[in-house]
Amino acid sequence: MKKQSRAEREAVNPQQAYKILKNGNERYLKKLSSDRDLSARILQTSRDQNPFAAVLSCIDSRVPVEFIFDQSIGDVFSIRVAGNVVNPDVLASLEFACQVKDAKIIVVMGHTHCGAIAAACEGGAEGNMTQLLGKIQNAVKALKEERPDAGDGEHFRDEVSIRNVFHSIDEIRKGSRVLRTLEKSGKMQILAALYDVRSGGVRFLDERAQKS
Ligand SMILES: [Zn+2]
What we know:
This protein has a five-stranded mixed beta sheet, sandwiched between helices. It has a single domain (about 5-210), classed as Carbonic anhydrase (Beta-carbonic Anhydrase, Chain A, 3-Layer(aba) Sandwich), CATH 3.40.1050. The two termini are about 30 Å apart. A hairpin with a 6-residue loop joins β4 and β5. It contains ten helices and five strands; from the N terminus they run αααβαβαβααααββα. With about 210 residues, it is an alpha/beta fold. The chain binds zinc ion. Zinc ion binds near residues 60, 111 and 114. The site of zinc ion has 6 residues, from α6.
């Protein structure tokens, strides 16, 4: 595989970045993932990196970001934190990815059967988990108020995952002027996604992405 120069990377626009990820997940689902020479990629990226995407996702062991998008070493900034929540360090990492290193897309990706979401729905946590789950509980509360009859089963929790993804995107936009400016200028886009741990499929949740 040829090393991609900075100029070539800059030629990738946000919409193309989305398609690279979407097509990568389709290959993954069809068991057509690329046969990658990882040793070659280690060599190619040993001096510099130019990832085209940043993905904020959960720590869940069933959601390995590069695998599910059929990407390799040097392709994606992967930021992982339980429940894909946002804090100042996450914002700084995203700013580094997009402002300093020119990544063209941020995908905030929740997943089905998320332990952090389940714990937030159940309430009650210990130690540092308390403040983390508190961030997700905003989504639980909002959804319960909207749909008092929704119960708290699997479907409800997956709906909370989706709500939580959009909440994280709001936090990114609110918390980072740098990222807001990049997004407004069209140099970078932020998309929401949900990964299904049963199928391996990534569903992009934004209307804009679904139309293309
Ligand atoms: Zn999770």
